[in-house]
Amino acid sequence: MKASTGRALFVLVIMATGLSMQHADAGELDLRWTFSLGSKHIGAEVDYNEFNPGVGFEARTSEYPELYAMGGVYYNSVEAPSMYGGMGWTPIVMGKHLKLGIEAGLVTGYETAFIQPLVAGTVRVADHAKVLVIPPTPVSPLTFGFQVVF
Q1: Which residues pair with 39 in a beta bridge?
Q2: What is the DSSP string of 20-43?
């Protein structure tokens, strides 16, 4: 796939995600900023970049607060810019300040493919700190990603 075609496809996915939230007719929209901080790669045989600054958003509705659309940009672990977009779901609430869930979407900027799928477990603490748990693949180790949300 040509890079320009990939970029166009990625933009369409982001727009479709946003439109799906807009047409949910599900109450008031809550838009939050996300700031990517870094990552930790467990058992890596390669020296990955673990300082991953970035900015993004999460959009959720008041009727379905556990479901959100997301998108953003960051400097990734192979020292290249990345864009991401997708959906998250945090249905498991443990006490007042801990939520568990999953995120799935598309990401760019890695060597294996211009656009590739990404699925991660999510741990949210006090709704302002997020840890992503990205399972290992044949080309990447178990990875933890860290974000703050406002």
Answers
A1: 145
A2: HHHTT--S-EEEEEEEEEEEEEET
CB atoms within 10 A of CB 90: 21
Q: How far apart are CA 23 and CA 26, in angstroms?
A: 8
pLDDT for res 25: 54
- Tokens representing 98 are 């801990």
Q: Which domains does the chain have, with CATH numbers?
A: 3-149 (2.40.160.20)
Per-residue pLDDT of 96-131, as tens digits, reads 999 999 999 999 999 999 999 999 999 999 989 999
Nearest CA to 41 out of 114, 119, 141 is that of: 141
C-alpha dist (Å) from residue 32 to 15, 70, 143, 150: 17, 9, 24, 5
Two structure tokens written together for 145: 């990603």
The two structure tokens encoding residue 115: 């656009």
First and final CA of the chain: distance in angstroms? 36
User: Is residue 16 pLDDT above 80, yes or no?
Assistant: no
